Amino acid sequence: MSKKTASLLLALFFLLAAVTGCTPITDDASSAASVQGQTSSAPEPVREPVTIRLVAAGDNLIHSTIYKQAKARATDGGYDFNYAYEHVKKLINGDVNILNQETLLASPPFEPSNYPMFSSPTQVGDLMMEMGFNVFTLANNHMLDKGEKGFLASLDYWDKQDGILTSGAYRNQEEMEEVRTITKKDVTLGLLSITEHTNGLSLPSSSELKILYTSDEAAIEKQIKATEAQCDFTVVAVHWGVENSFLLSDQQKELAQKMVEWGADLIIGTHPHVLQPMEYIDKPDGGKALVAYSLGNFISAMNVAPCMLGGVLNVDITKNYETESTEITSVQLVPVVGHYDSGYKNNRVYPLTEYTEELASSHGIRRYDSRFNYSYIKKVLTQQIDQEFVPEEFHSWYQAS
């Protein structure tokens, strides 16, 4: 072998050694890729359940004495409604806070007006949002009190509000069929708002504006199912029943059952202006839906004794990632009392925990309905709402009744 050949062989040997020396790096890289692949294919840890609080109040019914006192208390020439609600602001503390705005917020452009054709200053809505309400149901018997123009004026007001969800009044069919949702802590709630009637008033036949009535069960079923398919939890706000009456009609019970079968998880009733019972209804999937047939009034200047007691509903809703279910895990109705002095003056609302026998004895309603006193409040609460749904401080009332 020549020196040249030997030199070439030696060079080739070192070259092969150098290449072979790279192998562990390649293996390490492969190993790292393998570990990385194992990590990505390993199941992610199950997320802990999350719970949100839903708070719902009844009819925000702005009679003339309420907006007139707000006008008198304002220092800027507008309306200051703070006095009326200062005792109950702390109750609006949920992630989702729902209010039935019973009277049109259409002033301006309309002048404020009283029963039977309401229009309320928009400052009412401003304060409700400041208090924490972020969902407003607009389908009720007074939504056409100012005709098509009032309907549109109300929508114009609400459309200007950022981060606020409304349901029940729509500009057209397409808007009515949109699924309305609000998401908090990864829990998506869907909302429908429907009404039994509009006091015999109707939109012009040429109008594109839309309202969903309880009589249109096919449309309700379609919307509930569409909402249930896109959301974790479906809420239906329904304006129904007999005013000033504790009577639950067969139609209410039958529609409630149907709506649960279609996919409703929570039904919030308004319109009767009085507290009506709450109950669970079995869902097709084996869970439980809650129906609050009527939350009564949030505020009003009515002069009928049972209409002074309302309730603020608190519902905890828990999303369980392991079972892929979202269920009601806690329910409590916080009773509230509407109060005014003689001559409907100083109208305000109290939590029942802060309401006293002295206040009840001085209530201006006693001039019109002598039934009202503190004992009457106890009677209404214990007869209409089961003990399991009220705060513990009222449980002794049930033992005594």
How would you portray this structure in words?
Strand 7 and strand 8 (187-195) form a beta hairpin. The chain has one domain: Purple Acid Phosphatase, chain A, domain 2 (4-Layer Sandwich). The protein is built from 12 helices and 16 strands. The radius of gyration is 30 Å and the shape is globular. The strands form 3 sheets. Strands 1, 2, 5, 6, 13, 14, 15 and 16 form an 8-stranded mixed beta sheet that branches. Strands 7-8-9-10-12-11 form a 6-stranded mixed beta sheet. Strands 3-4 form a two-stranded parallel ribbon. Helix 8 (217-230) runs parallel beside helix 9. It is an alpha/beta fold and 401 residues long. Helix content is 32%, strand content 26%.
